[in-house]
Structure formats: C-alpha cells, structure tokens
Amino acid sequence: MTWLSLNWPHVIDLARAHLLLSVPAILLSVVIAVPVGRLAYRHPRVGGPLLGAASLLYAIPALPLLIVIPALLGTPLRSATTMIVALTVYGVALLVRTAADAFTAVDDHTRGAAVAVGHSPLAVFWQVDLPLAFPVLLSGVRVVTVSTIGLVTIGALIGVSSLGTLLTDGFQRSIPAEVTTGVIATVLLALLLDGLLLLTGRVAAPWTRAARPARGTAVTA
Amino acid sequence: MIEFEQVTKTYPGGSVAVEGFSLVVPSHRTVALVGSSGSGKTTLLRMVNRMVEPTSGRVLIDDQDVQDRDPVELRRSIGYVLQAGGLLPHRTVLDNVATVLRLNHVTRQAARARAAEMLERVGLDPALGSRYPGQLSGGQQQRVGVARALVPDPNILLMDEPFGAVDPIVRRELQDELARLQTELGKTIVFVTHDVDEAFRLGDEVVVLRERAAIAQQGTPSDILAAPADEFVHDFVGAGRAERVLHTQTIGGRLVAVDGTGLPVGVLES
Q1: Residues 97 to 126 of B: which have CB under 8 A from any A CB?
Q2: CATH code linked to domain A1-206
Q3: What is the CATH number of the domain that holds B158?
Q4: How far is CA A69 from CA A36, A75, A76, in A?
Q5: Is residue B86 within 8 angstroms of chain A, CB to CB?
C-alpha cells in the first residue's frame, strides 16, 4: 500500500492511457465486426469462410502481430496506433461470429412481418435487425471488452504505456507491490467497463426484461 | 378492386404453388380464400403486396399493375395482418400500432395519438399501449395486429390466417369484432384461412381452393353450402357433417331446428 500511496498519480495516468488504447479498439471492433457479421448472415456462402478466416486472426501471436502491423501500415512500431490496430484485429476475431449469430437469432417471422408492413431494407436493418440482435451483440461486446483490457498490457513489452507498464517495470525492478497494483487495476478497469455495458443493456433493451406479464396485471382479451 | 389475371407462381426447383389463377375482388367486399395447406392461398395473398412476385400473370389494384408500383410504398398503402400479430417485440404496443405512420414520416406525437385512438377502436384498453407485445395475451396481440394494419386507413386489408393462433372462444370474439369493424369501415379485404366456418362467417364471397390454387368453387357462403360444386367441396365445407344437416321438429307447438346428431340448435320463427 505504501507503494500505491506514493505512486497513485502515476497509476491514474497509466489507467487513462490504458483506456485511450482499449476504448477506440473496442469501438472499432464493433464498427467492423457488426457489418461483417451481418454480411455473413445474409450471404452464408461467403459468410462461412469469412467467419472462419476472421476467427483464425485470434490465433496470431501478439508480438509478431505488433511487428507485422507497422510493416504493413507504415505506423511507428512503438505507437498507440499500432497497438489499437492489433487490439482491433483480436476484437474483430472474437466478435464476428457472435455478430453473425445475433442476426441469425432474429425471428424470420418478425422480420418478414416488418417487410410486409412496409419497412425498406435499410429500415429493416436499423429498426428491426439491429435492435433485436442487440442483446446478443452486447454479450459479445462484453467479452471483447474484457479481453481487450487484458491484452492492452502486452503493449508494455514494445514500450506503449498502459497499466501493463506497472507489470514490466515491477518485474524488472523487483517491486512486487507495483506488479500487484498493475494486476488489480487492470481487473478493476475490466470490471468497471463490463458493468457499464451491462447497465447500457438494461437501459437500451427494456423489452428483454418485460417478456412475461407482471403478476396480477394481466388483462384478458 | 383487386384483380388476379392468370397468375402462376413456380418456385426454383419446379414446384408449382399457383397455376393460372384469376379472380376479381370487388371494392369494399370481403373475399375469403379457403383451402388446406399447400393450396397456395397465402402465396396469392402475398402477391398483392409484392411479398411474392408471380412467375407469370398480373395482379392489378384499381386497374394498375402492382409490378409498376414501388414495393415499399405499395406495402405501406395496404394493411397486412398475419398470424400471431407479427409485432415487433422491442417496440411498445403503441409504437407498434404507430409503425406505418412513422414510416410515412408522420410526427411521433401525431402517430401515437392516432395509434391510441385505434387501440380503443379494436377494443383494447389504451393503457396497454405502454406494454411490450410479449406482455399481452394472444388475443390482445392479434387485436394490436389489426390496429396496426388499420391505422394508416388503407383501402385494402390482407389477412393471412390472422386468428389461427388463438383459442376458439377468443377467435370467435375476434371474428365478431372484425365483422363489426368491417360494417363501419368497408375495406376491401382478402382473408386467407383454412377454417371453413371462419370463411363463411366473414366472407361476402368465399373461394374454395384445391392444390395449386385451382378454384374448386366460388360464391356466397349460402351458395356453396346449398350446392357444393363437387365431392371435394362437399367434403371440404363439411356439407355432410352432422351439425350442418338440420331438420325441424314440432315441440310444444313451435318449430325447433335439430342437427344430425339430434341436438336442438334453435327455434324457427315464422
């Protein structure tokens, strides 16, 4: 605790850096994976191989990926951009299949009815498919979020500051308290974001909790 | 007026759902298409709002080929009611009813006001408006489905086995309600069902279909019941069924109608 009491401004700074790396990566993962998942659902023949390939991305080891990205994109090796791209690759790999499943799970009867009463294809996507896929999508995003928060720490190995810096620095200088702080702070950050997402789901999808009639208030036709 | 002109629907793989079907549905009348599953009746219905495109032939609404209309605009101009309501589970009842108005860019407030009015009209407590469809009974959902179809005040109402998913008592209530609404509104209704009694109760005209939407008989319910065209129609409408064969007995000086099982079903008035 002494270590933390002396270094907490540093920890706060690193936590902020941690968020600045993970939040854009999570958002980018969603923005990329949702359309790809939707494409895979609409065109299963293209979708099957696409989902397979996307999932395989997760098998790429982190350190080689952090070297390949600058080589391919011309971004500086030890930069936030490189890190965010790498995290997005993993996020997309985790999320595409869930996204495809989320759209598959939308009831065809409901979708058909929406078309029949006059929703344009665009309106079907925004007003029917997306909101109904939302609960499943959100569960996928929660997994990506927790995973991304954990993965950000690897950046410390190539010199991109985050809470992971506490781990590398603590190991090198043999300060167990610093390492422990790094682990706990990372876990807390993951829990915090996960909690926020859970809350978002509650607020944004109220129908999922209203599926059954409240006791004593049912009115017969 | 809706006209089917020699429409045929062949699905890829060669299965024929509808073959050379022609029919005129006069304005402000209810025509019930009745047939067993596989008779192509739903396919016919869905050709009217271009959910299904005919392989050949034409469907005309007021002498205009639906093929010349934009499908989305066409669907918004036609009321569509389907089994189990087909409601959007993530929208409140009120917003479900207001859907088509909102798609037609009516302001939210105006759309909701008209939706609330329509809920009352179909016999629902407007307080149900803030519920989600999942919180309603089957019969209530079905009424919401009817309200949603009626709220933009379309000339045409397409009903695809709308009361198939509710129990017989509620079904009867809904049929009576629809009949009442129709006397007030006078829509042009195409009603698809496999239930002959429902077709007879609601149809000004009934079209009995066999496979591939071949018309076995077309006429008023009494025409069909009095003179079934053939064995198929006779069996399908149950003309030989005990409860359809009535005779009279004089009991206590009054004429009592008795069905084929010996059950008295009513008293004849002179």
Answers
A1: 99-100, 103, 125
A2: 1.10.3720.10
A3: 3.40.50.300
A4: 21, 7, 9
A5: yes
Q: pLDDT digits over B210-261, tens only?
A: 999 999 999 999 999 989 999 999 988 887 787 788 888 888 888 898 888 8
Same domain, B206 and B132: yes
Verify whether the Cβ–Cβ distance A218 to B137 is below 8 Å.
Answer: yes
Asked if the Cβ–Cβ distance from B134 to A212 is below 8 Å, we say yes
State whether B264 and B141 are in the same domain.
no
* Sign of the torsion angle spanned by Cα atoms B115, B120, B121, B124: positive
- Number of independent structural domains in chain B: 2
**What φ, ψ does residue B269 adopt, rounded to 5°?**
-100, 140
Tokens 């709308």 sit at which residue? B162
Q: Can you give the residue range of the structural domain that contains B249?
A: 241-270
Q: Looking at the complex, does the CB of residue A117 fall below 8 Å from at least one CB of chain B?
A: yes
Bridge partners of B266, per DSSP, are: B257
B90·A131 Cβ contact <8 A: yes
Q: Does A136 touch chain B (CB under 8 A)?
A: no
pLDDT per residue as tens digits for the range B48-103? 999 999 999 999 999 999 999 999 999 999 999 988 778 999 999 999 999 999 99
Does residue B80 sit in the same domain as residue B136?
yes
Domain boundaries, chain A: 1-206
